[in-house]
Amino acid sequence: MKVLKIYNSTIVNWKENAAISEANHPNLLMLFLARVNMTNGELPLGLHAYRLPETLIDIEFCISNLRSLPEDFDLKWPKHAIVYFEACNFTEVPPPLERLAPFDLSLAFNPISTIPATLIQGNAGYFHVGGTLISELPEAINDVSPTFKLRVDNTNISFFWNWVDPMVANADGVGMSPIVAYNSPYCADLQRIFVGKQQNFSTPIRENQSLFLSDASEGNWDLLKKSVSCDQWPAVYYPIGFEDQFSRIKTS
Q: What's this model's pTM, rounded to 2 decimal places?
């Protein structure tokens, strides 16, 4: 088995004797749970009783009541994988998820209001916190990779700290922008600046704020356009619309 998908289900009990493991599922590559609820909003034992296969590089939850992770979660799941917990019920980022350090992490549309700096520091991959309750990113972050990509679309982000500057300096206008901020106060300002309706960003300049992304002068527009995308992206990475069409019960 290379792919395991659970759709539109409730997991009441997933016992240890049926758990996913390296020994029993050595070829598993992908694990998808879409519109799946779990008892008490907790990760079932079948997904953390044993170490998951090292081959498992893509784990995605989309629309779930999941709200917590076991303390030893990071010791059981593969590191540096694609891990999406989208539209779940996390109100804060679980510490084991910080330690797991996924290469590509999405917490989109969880009701979380703060982001730990450890999820950004040293990360050369992708981080999606769009649709969350955040209004500000962590201020004190060191060792930000120039290749790091950050999504804060559909949030209340209105400015960026200067730790994004290595990302901005690396922006080349090709592929994904370093920052995606569609439907945010920052992009609302940016779009008004580009059409001449305002001359400056509405948020007062703060100490340690990115000067690159706070400079509204026309000479800086090219850098702003390369660094921050205000285009609309799919709200979550998991193709839930397609899944609903493809997997729904058909009556004829």
A: 0.94
